[in-house]
Amino acid sequence: MQHAPGEEARQELAPTPDGPAPSRWTLRGIRATFPWLKDYTLSGVWRVLHRYGLHIRAARVRQHSPDPEYAAKLDHLVDCLRDAAAHPGEVELLFLDEMGYYRWPAEGGSWSQSAPAPAPLADRDGPNHKQWRVIGALNALRGRVDYLDAYIIGREKLIRFYRQVAAAYPDARLIYVVQDNWSIHRHAAVEAALQELSQIEPVWLPTYAPWLNPIEERPTDYTWRPRQPQHPQPHLPSMPSFDGSDRRRGSA
After folding, report:
1. pTM for the model
2. CB within 10 Å: which end of the chain, N or C, has fewer?
């Protein structure tokens, strides 16, 4: 059962004679695959599986980054984390990310009068969908979140946010800013601004590796709830679970 169901399960479960085999094991597929189970009821198959220690388990996603320098970038990130942990207050490490969201209300269930009375309305009056954007930085050791929100987050807002971060940690001689490979992060104007903010050192994440950035989670009310990696990262120190309770908002 470490392989996908085969021909026997296909014949049992396919909706048409030439339909594809199922992608997951079911009780019917298991019974059809193993001849010695053919006379068992589905509940009997279930009991046999449990007797052999087989249970339904939630699958985990196998994460993959195509970055050929994944291992080297991961090692560098770990070194930076250790540096920040060894020199608290003097060295800071922040996980940075940007995101956009819509401020339109979503429809959902609500108590109201029975039909034929009108159903509750999610009022979406206005000329657009009211999209808004926010950039934030999560402190890896303290759990503090600084952020700046605006209609557009481009190079000007990114530069302003870098300055906001530098001002938020006036005693730090070094601020690692862990970020992804968004093109704006490497814009010439942004790189020039970073030359003036010598205490900030960008740390580049591997391509398409959001599981290494704990701020990669949808914010609610300007609060990031970082997620843990969806699969074990044996070389990455465990990170605390932050709730963004110590957050600082910057002016737009």
Report:
1. 0.66
2. N
